[in-house]
Specification:
With 113 residues, the chain is α+β, with helices and mostly antiparallel strands. It contains three helices and four strands; from the N terminus they run αββαββα. The protein has helices at residues 21-28, 54-71, 98-109, and strands at 35-39, 42-50, 76-80, 83-88. Strands 1-2-4-3 form a four-stranded antiparallel sheet. A hairpin with a 2-residue loop joins β3 and β4 (83-88).
Length: 113
């Protein structure tokens, strides 16, 4: 499994570097269920989690929200019947930072808890 899940986010400022193409390849390989989406020119990580019903999807959304609060890094969360779409990117740099990959790995771990 990914080493990312054991890492901690670092404080990120507006001048923090976005991941390079080389880093992107290495990091995305560690979270194979996630994809890269580009919206309005901003690269983002996205994964859809499937559940048997809305109640389970909502419970997962709440866990993801608690994780986000714990690390001070917040995703876009779309909760629907039977699924939750989680999208990570770093707003301050309008793109992907290593923190986003760390949080994606930690989000995957929520399925185990």
């Amino acid at each position: 499994m990914s080493e990312l899940k054991s890492m901690t986010c670092e404080a990120c400022r507006a001048d923090a570097p976005k991941v390079t193409d080389k880093e992107l390849k290495e990091l995305i390989a560690q979270i194979p269920d996630w994809g890269v989406e580009v919206r309005d020119g901003i690269m983002q990580l996205e994964r859809q989690f499937k559940f048997k019903n809305f109640k389970l999807a909502l419970a997962f959304t709440n866990k993801a929200g608690e994780l986000a609060e714990e690390f001070g890094h917040h995703p876009a969360l779309l909760t629907e019947w039977g699924k939750v779409t989680v999208t990570w990117w770093t707003h301050a740099i309008k793109g992907l930072h290593k923190n986003d990959f760390i949080m994606a790995a930690k989000t995957d771990e929520l399925l185990e808890s």
